[in-house]
Write a structure and sequence with these properties.
The chain is of the alpha/beta class. Helix content is 34%, strand content 18%. The chain has helices at residues 19-31, 50-63, 81-89, 116-125, 148-162, 176-185, 202-207, 220-230, 266-276, 283-295, and strands at residues 3-7, 9-14, 34-39, 68-74, 92-97, 128-131, 168-170, 189-193, 237-239, 303-312, 328-333. The strands form 2 sheets. An 8-stranded parallel beta sheet has the order 2-3-4-5-6-7-8-9. A 3-stranded antiparallel beta sheet has the order 1-10-11. The longest helix is centred in the middle third of the chain and has 15 residues, at 148-162. The protein is globular and about 50 Å long. The relative contact order is 0.16.
């Protein structure tokens, strides 16, 4: 196969930032093959009201009018049903919960249980709850960044038991345990898998700050489990890039910012990996079909053509270093 025709990719988890960085990176999502994107709300200040959602959507449209933006609302206990209804009218399809202090701009986050009334209202209104599923570091209980995701999984199960009709997405799964739990919990629980977690293991981010993200990549067996899940055709396992740009200066030093920037290389990276796994025909379901179905959205609009034409990923896009910088990929967008 020398050419591949797909709908434009649904990137159902992307960080588009704000201000000058947003204006720089938003067009790169379209260049990388995305057509519809779910914009994360962890800005400063967070996107935590319907009015903030509307303002952010306007800014995103000005930065890149060629994308279809789905919006998220930052979960906090002050959200009531009326505000959620206003947010839904402003384009919100998901409420995003973060563990406090675990990732970029999560300082304002509230405890999971404190947001249960919000989740109850979301369940009634048909909104999705999107989870960054990690526990904060807790040396006394042996929890650190290498096992924080696995430690969170009992809370995912408890949340599903409390709200069985609530659609929950366990974002950016990185462990074989997470994939297994999502499969077992049933039709209202799904997970996203990123392009970079199909590539990375712990050895990569320990050596390269541009491969460091939260949750961190784990062992070879975990990466292999993610690859198997991505190509399996399972309807509740689908794509979300978690593309998270930071200026190169923020990725330097002893404590690099958490985030991997994959937006400009999404479709070529996925096609190259799926082909290597002998599963190129499964890419459509993973990146264009199953996520939309879980969210209850129409199929993605627009078309994307990839051709087998090796190209080398640029060293940088402006001030941001992309994932796979300097690496040759087998496919490119036309």
């Amino acid at each position: 196969m020398d050419a591949l025709e797909l709908p434009r990719i649904d990137d159902l988890h992307v960080h588009l930032r704000q201000g000058a960085l947003m204006r720089q990176v938003a067009p790169l999502s379209r260049r990388g093959g995305a057509g519809r994107v779910l914009a994360m709300p962890n800005l400063r200040p967070p996107v935590d009201t319907a009015a903030a959602v509307s303002a952010y959507h306007t800014a995103l449209r000005a930065a890149e009018p060629g994308l279809d933006y789905l919006m998220t609302l930052y979960a906090h206990p002050g959200l009531d049903r009326a505000e959620l209804e206003r947010a839904r009218a402003a384009g919100v399809v998901a409420v995003k919960w973060y563990p406090q202090g675990v990732t970029t701009n999560s300082d304002a986050a509230a405890a999971l249980e404190a947001c249960y009334p919000v989740f109850a209202a979301a369940e009634e209104l048909g909104l999705v709850v999107s989870l960054h599923g990690e526990m904060p570091d807790d040396p006394a209980h042996g929890i650190d960044r290498t096992n924080a995701e696995q430690a969170f999984l009992p809370r995912l199960a408890a949340l599903h038991q409390r709200f069985p009709r609530l659609r929950i997405i366990f974002e950016h799964a990185t462990s074989r345990e997470a994939v297994a739990v999502v499969r077992d919990l049933g039709e209202t629980v799904a997970c996203t898998i990123t392009a970079h977690h199909l590539e990375l293991t712990a050895a990569d981010w320990q050596l390269d700050p541009h491969s460091y993200c939260k949750p961190v990549a784990k062992a070879d067996a975990d990466r292999d489990a993610l690859r198997a899940a991505a190509i399996s055709g399972h309807p509740r396992i689908f794509f979300g890039s978690d593309s998270a740009p930071h200026p190169a200066a923020a990725k330097a030093g002893a404590h690099p910012a958490a985030g991997v920037f994959t937006a400009p290389v999404l479709a070529p990276l996925l096609a190259t990996r799926f082909e290597s796994l002998g599963a190129l025909p499964r890419l459509r379901d993973f990146a264009c079909v199953h996520g939309a179905a879980f969210y209850g959205l129409p199929p993605p609009a627009g078309s994307l053509r990839l051709v087998r034409q090796p190209w080398t990923v640029p060293a940088a896009y402006g001030e941001v270093v992309p994932f796979a910088a300097g690496r040759q990929l087998a496919w490119r967008c036309t």
